[in-house]
Predict the 3D structure of the following.
Amino acid sequence: MKNLFIAILLCFSSISFTQVFDTVYLYRDTIHQGNVILNVVSFSPVDSFVTTNAVINMDAGETLNLTVINRDTVDHSLVIDDYIESNNSVAVNDTVDFVFQPSENGTFRYYSGTDQGKYLGASGIILVGYQNYSRFYWNLYDHNDTLASEFANGTATGFPTEYRPSVFLINNYTFPHTLTDTLSYVTGNVGDTIVIACINSGYMPHSLHFHGYHVRIESVRKRTHTLFWDKDTYPLIPGEAVLFRLIPDQEGMYPVHDHNLITVTNTGAYPGGMITRLNIQP
Ligand SMILES: [Cu+2]
């Protein structure tokens, strides 16, 4: 009987009930990249506008208590696909608490599901687990600057079927600004285990090509049949969230870019747009 009691106790103690708390603020502003001015709404980790949507990290087994504060001029919502999809409005000036209890580790995407959130880039990364690894974050985003300003001023009549994006971003930066973004610019050494949490917050597929290496699909939310595939090119459909695992087998400086080729020429000439680099030392 005593042994059974200890067994039950051990069983319960191995389950983590740790709560983590985080707060994000919805703000709108414009970002200036290359020759483009883009209207965006962003989830900020601080009580003012920031360019890149907040990255949220949590350990495996933790429960996230996420507070969303809406400083924007229109209503928003909070969506995490398959987890938070209803009763999720965050009205203007409102503060709403959400609970996210993921059933697996890897990359998730949180976003505002209203038109002005969905079509102005209010969309960020949650990374569950992998907190002891070398971590990087790529939030892919595309838009048409004229269309974005129409969504921002409320004159857009819906998302067009003939969508022609004009700007391509990682963490809301275009190349070469991506090279000074420490969240996305990958640095490491041969033999390191590096994880890259990547989401597609945009409106078209982005096919990332890793020069120099293959990566393993460590988690994937939408095209789940690709789990554990080893790839050098991987397409992310809109709304996708994946975790790439990279163990570099050689030193060097290699580009990663989108093989959807219109997206690497945003400023009119290659290279531009959705490009970053892997900087691997011996
Ligand atoms: Cu390539």
Observations:
- The helical segments are 2-13, 115-118, 145-153.
- DSSP finds three helices and 21 strands in the chain.
